Amino acid sequence: MSEKKAVIFCSASYDIDPKYNQAAREVVRAACLRGYTIVSGGTVKGTMGVVSDAVIEFGGKHRGIIPKFMADVVYPHLDELIWTETMSERKEAMREGTCLAIALPGGIGTLDELMETFTLLKLNLYQGRIIIYNFEGFYNPLKALLDHYVNAKMLDGATMSKVFFPGTMQELEELL
Asked: How far is CA 56 from CA 38, 53, 59, 154, in A?
């Protein structure tokens, strides 16, 4: 059986409400318990660092993907570290071999990673599913925008059927 890998997109900010980091820990716990190798941006910063710590805490495997210009913030205890030259290469390497992309509440970088993955899904160039953890309604505005796209026929329902917006850990766990 091949290794299950889930890429996690999340915040690199230290300034966010701690509830988002706690939610990230719970997601990592659930994924590790189900045998997923976690793929992330591989830094110590913000929620990325929380994800890295949680993978160790819950006995999972962790692949970090990081551009060389960010070497000073690399997480020191990754099971596998892959260096890239650019952020674009990083995003491609993060998705490689994954069957699942999970977007946690995050900033513009998370949104960039998510939307590129969504576009590749639409083009049948990403074969995994996308889970957008709508913790405490964080992604309600994005969900409304995507629903608007579907209603306006700018996005097809078949693509949207591969994207999930669980609002609770129980709903998210059912999708794992």
From this structure: 11, 5, 5, 42
